[in-house]
Structures are given as C-alpha cells and as structure tokens.
Amino acid sequence: MKGNFGDSISNKVYEYRVLARMSQQELAEKVGVSKQTIFVMEKGNYVPTLLLAYRIANFFKVDVNEIFTYAEGNDQNEN
Fold first, then answer.
1. pTM score
2. 59 half-sphere exposure, CB direction, 13 A CA radius
3. What does the pLDDT look like over 11-49, one tens digit per residue?
4. By its UniProt entry, which SUPFAM superfamilies does this protein fall under (predicted)?
5. Is the dihedral of CA 64, 65, 68, 73 positive or negative?
6. Is residue 17 helix, strand or coil?
7. Which residues are CB-neighbours of 63 under 8 A, at least 6 positions away?
8. Domain 9-64 sits in which CATH superfamily?
9. At what angle do helices 24-31 and 35-42 cross, to 10 degrees?
10. What is the DSSP string of 24-68?
11. Helix, strand, or coil here: 72?
C-alpha cells in the first residue's frame, strides 16, 4: 500500500563542495553526474539515488549520514 508519508531528505552537498573549493562541474565529474544534477540537489529539488549518495559521501571521505539527513513524515493514509 502506497501512502503519502511526507518523508524528506536534506543534504549538505553545497557546504562540503564549497569547503573543498570545488565547482559544481568538478564535483559532478568526480561522482559521474551532470552539473545540473548537483545544482538541483543542492537546492533541495532532487533526492539522489542511494548509489549517488554513497558516491558523494565516499568522495568527501565521510559517512553518508554526515551529508544526507532523513526526516520521517507522517502517513497521511493511516486509518
């Protein structure tokens, strides 16, 4: 059964990228995506795949939970 859970994922990709003094294009090339993907992810308009999240975390040599934060919502279809 599919519910509207309202879950979300926030990220610190922008912060880590800026601290590393990298452009969006440079990070995109390192993790195998387009600059546009990095852009929309930083703006919070794109939730990366688990594989991409791990690629980014591994690139910055941190745990995936340091960059990506899961926030659980409420099941709107619960009876």
1. 0.84
2. 19
3. 999 999 999 999 999 999 999 999 999 999 999 999 999
4. lambda repressor-like DNA-binding domains
5. positive
6. helix
7. 57
8. lambda repressor-like DNA-binding domains (1.10.260.40)
9. 110
10. HHHHHHHHTS-HHHHHHHHTTS-PPPHHHHHHHHHHTTS-HHHHE
11. coil
Domain ranges in the chain are 9-64
Q: CA–CA separation, 54 vs 75, rounded Å?
A: 27
CA dihedral in degrees (31, 33, 39, 41; nearest 10)?
A: -70
Average pLDDT over residues 45-73: 96
Measured CA to CA, the distance from residue 26 to residue 18 in angstroms comes to 11
Which residue bears the tokens 């099941």? 75
> Tokens representing 23?
């452009």
